[in-house]
Amino acid sequence: MTKTDMNARRPRLLLGVGNVLRRDDGAGVFAARAATRLRLGPDLEAYDGGCGGIDLADVLEGRARVVIVDAIDAGMPPGASTRMSPEELRPAIRTGVSLHDLHLLDALAELRLLHSAPRCVIVIGVQVADISVGIGLSPAVERALPGVIRSALCALGAPAPAVIPNVRDALMPAAADGIPGAGVESVSCKSK
Q1: pLDDT tens-digit readout, 83-97
Q2: Contacts of 95 (CB under 8 A, 6+ apart)
Q3: Alpha-carbon dihedral 21, 48, 143, 39, rounded to 10 degrees
Q4: Between β-strands 65-72 and 81-84, what pairing exists: parallel, antiparallel or unpaired?
Q5: Rounded average pLDDT over 119-138
Q6: Which of 16, 61, 127, 191 is the residue whose CA sits 20 to 30 A from 146?
């Protein structure tokens, strides 16, 4: 990637990762897809990283601030979320808390070696209820995602929008297109 390309990209990124074919494991992807339907502003981007790992280095490169939304299994109530650093995520991967392997962290390590890593990276982990094969989220995780998106946007320094698209619409992106107010939930961005 050239310096011109890096300077043209948006400095803040909401990156959702996961496998949408394993129900709640796709929580991060559904969060990113729902966020892409928002008016995020000229310096903020939402990106569906899917199951990408080391390949996401190009997406992460040169960003100022990144929030990664991912599914975890930490024994919390389904839909609960926790905020951690990538350094805190590494041991979680080894103990089975994170549902993904080290490749995303390897991408960040590669970028640090190249002096082009994001200046700040925050991981928001969403507790899964069901990671069986199938498409769609469990009710608890689906209900929690608007709040997770709000938290991610707040962590990126962005005001939360008045509405967050329903994550069910993120499964079938064209489902609510052209229908004003379809599939949205109200949220606010308040510090806790």
Answers
A1: 998 888 765 554 454
A2: none
A3: -150
A4: unpaired
A5: 94
A6: 61
Say how far apart CA 176 and CA 184 lie, in whole Å. 10
d(CA 154, CA 185): 17
Average pLDDT of the residues in 54-78: 93
CA-derived radius of gyration, the chain:
16
pLDDT for 157 beyond 80 = yes
CB-based contacts of 143: which residues, under 8 Å, 6+ apart?
A: 79
8 A C-beta contact, residue 89 and residue 98: yes
Which residue, among 56, 57, 6, has the nearest Cα to 28 in the 3D structure? 56
Q: Which of 89, 25, 72, 33 is nearest to 51 (CA)?
A: 25
The amino acid sitting at 135 is: I
Q: Are residues 83 and 148 in contact, defined by beta-carbon separation less than 8 angstroms?
A: no
Give the dihedral of Cα atoms 114, 117, 119, 124; nearest 10 deg. -160
Q: Which residue has the tokens 């394993």?
A: 22
CB atoms < 10 A from the CB of 191, how many? Answer: 4
Q: At residue 69, what are phi and psi to the nearest 5 degrees?
A: -105, 125
27-35 vs 139-155: helix crossing angle, rounded to 10: 60
Nearest Cα to Cα of residue 68 among 159, 152, 150: 152
Q: Which two tokens stand for residue 65?
A: 């601030």
Report how far residue 68's alpha carbon sits from residue 143's, in angstroms, rounded to the nearest whole number: 19
**Does the pTM exceed 0.85?**
no
